[in-house]
């Protein structure tokens, strides 16, 4: 009996922190641990989802289908989820993931672009996958837009809609407002995915639960992009203290985090100056490299550039704007 | 104009993480940075307060009076605070600290023992120090007791009373309840000191502010005992986004954290399995070593020992109980 469904993203969002270099053995070990600890779902894919392995997003060390299969083979109870961003991944990737053992798909779009996911969500349902829509950069749209986009996901067949704080920007009250509005306006279940750039991943996850979310993402040792995610083993401890059932064994999940994940971390998941500014500004961490260059070229503090990019609600793909903003700030 | 007074404890609680090995130059550099960033107060002392340097609590590399003096010499605006735990420190330590340049004293006792602080608080006021009472392990007493103890502090002359979540145990609602009760029942200002063992330091600090606290502790890069404290530079960013004035410059404080503190960290301030269990159980981190020994001796999971010690509200000085608990759990 579970009140809250924890979905662990160590093997997907955590892939960013691992620079997409997970070995098959590492995936097998973590998957076995998650399964033994009783984690209901965990996601396996390139950090940018199925098909993400590329020069642009970073090449994976091992083909993700091999990793999905390795993970699925360790599962007696847990189910493997995959993430698909239409445009990066294609429908065939979903079919291949199912053949490799995936049981759930999360179709992810920018917060204003749910309409590009219709086919993928429908196909995911057709394949028999538990299917979710995943609204990224959810701080960039007002609540009314989030409700409208969630309704699109629902109309395509999504069974869960996630609010995704990709930049770790949201404050707890803003999470409450978004989740509550979804709860009042859509029929499917609601999920929340936090990032810890402002040290609020746990606070925001609790706010989401209180407002009606039932699916919460976490990652072991907080392994994920930026400052990482809600720390799975800590989430289990906090919810256990609150009397909320997750079905996860606390000691077992701590053992996976400490004994399997901690030793392979390339760097600890701290809140550094740059990840803090990402969260404060509300921009993608992929902007950082270009911003550093533009900062040097135009002699402008990179933090001012990032804050201005956030103010302009700049999204991935608009990297050219970074130089334009730097130039305008020099004046 | 400040809505919230931030007190940085990197040079006191952070001393635990540094194993009390701060050099005079490091203290000088951090103090200069804090002063430039506009931090109103920062604390300098052994992790266990004035007089803490000892075989029992760990020997400091440099005499704390030298460190206080070095820090005070860097201050044009910031004020140096010291912590004193009666029994570890004595009244003369306060006088020496004043001579070295301290402007504020926080007199700390276990949550039920404010009555041992009467002389120290009175003497601190006599010395012209801004004076606070600091209730440690605040999760161990119900709110009614905290109010009663705070009233004692107030009656001795304390101008601020702190609720101190030494073990990182409290949930946000529990912080709200405690701070709100103080707000309703005492006249002096209210402070809050968090630890991040349950990933709730920021959430709890915000809950405290919302309930009426005006003094909030933080530390750079979260440097402190257990999983560390509320991360000062992140707190500044979060409060700035909320429109709450702290008087601290965001970019400057990030620079101190990144350029001065991060390079000297002996280890990053993560939430490890053992610090998580400390917070979950609500026990002092000083119990860990004995618990490991007892665990091996009696073949009992050390986490079970810690949870049972927490349930029994065991405090520092009762280390013998650790073996007794381990033995009883073996049965």
UniProtKB/TrEMBL annotation, chains A, B:
<dbReference type="InterPro" id="IPR035685">
    <property type="entry name" value="DRE_TIM_HOA"/>
</dbReference>
<feature type="binding site">
    <location>
        <position position="166"/>
    </location>
    <ligand>
        <name>substrate</name>
    </ligand>
</feature>
<dbReference type="GO" id="GO:0030145">
    <property type="term" value="F:manganese ion binding"/>
</dbReference>
<keyword id="KW-0456">Lyase</keyword>
<protein>
    <recommendedName>
        <fullName>4-hydroxy-2-oxovalerate aldolase</fullName>
        <ecNumber>4.1.3.39</ecNumber>
    </recommendedName>
</protein>
<feature type="binding site">
    <location>
        <position position="193"/>
    </location>
    <ligand>
        <name>Mn(2+)</name>
    </ligand>
</feature>
<feature type="binding site">
    <location>
        <position position="284"/>
    </location>
    <ligand>
        <name>substrate</name>
    </ligand>
</feature>
<dbReference type="Pfam" id="PF07836">
    <property type="entry name" value="DmpG_comm"/>
</dbReference>
<feature type="binding site">
    <location>
        <position position="193"/>
    </location>
    <ligand>
        <name>substrate</name>
    </ligand>
</feature>
<feature type="active site" description="Proton acceptor">
    <location>
        <position position="16"/>
    </location>
</feature>
<dbReference type="InterPro" id="IPR017629">
    <property type="entry name" value="4OH_2_O-val_aldolase"/>
</dbReference>
<feature type="site" description="Transition state stabilizer">
    <location>
        <position position="12"/>
    </location>
</feature>
<keyword id="KW-0058">Aromatic hydrocarbons catabolism</keyword>
<keyword id="KW-0464">Manganese</keyword>
<feature type="binding site">
    <location>
        <begin position="12"/>
        <end position="13"/>
    </location>
    <ligand>
        <name>substrate</name>
    </ligand>
</feature>
<dbReference type="GO" id="GO:0008701">
    <property type="term" value="F:4-hydroxy-2-oxovalerate aldolase activity"/>
</dbReference>
<dbReference type="InterPro" id="IPR012425">
    <property type="entry name" value="DmpG_comm"/>
</dbReference>
<feature type="binding site">
    <location>
        <position position="13"/>
    </location>
    <ligand>
        <name>Mn(2+)</name>
    </ligand>
</feature>
<keyword id="KW-0479">Metal-binding</keyword>
<feature type="binding site">
    <location>
        <position position="195"/>
    </location>
    <ligand>
        <name>Mn(2+)</name>
    </ligand>
</feature>
<dbReference type="InterPro" id="IPR000891">
    <property type="entry name" value="PYR_CT"/>
</dbReference>
<dbReference type="GO" id="GO:0003852">
    <property type="term" value="F:2-isopropylmalate synthase activity"/>
</dbReference>
<dbReference type="InterPro" id="IPR050073">
    <property type="entry name" value="2-IPM_HCS-like"/>
</dbReference>
<comment type="similarity">
    <text>Belongs to the 4-hydroxy-2-oxovalerate aldolase family.</text>
</comment>
<dbReference type="GO" id="GO:0009098">
    <property type="term" value="P:L-leucine biosynthetic process"/>
</dbReference>
<feature type="domain" description="Pyruvate carboxyltransferase">
    <location>
        <begin position="4"/>
        <end position="254"/>
    </location>
</feature>
<dbReference type="InterPro" id="IPR013785">
    <property type="entry name" value="Aldolase_TIM"/>
</dbReference>
<dbReference type="Pfam" id="PF00682">
    <property type="entry name" value="HMGL-like"/>
</dbReference>
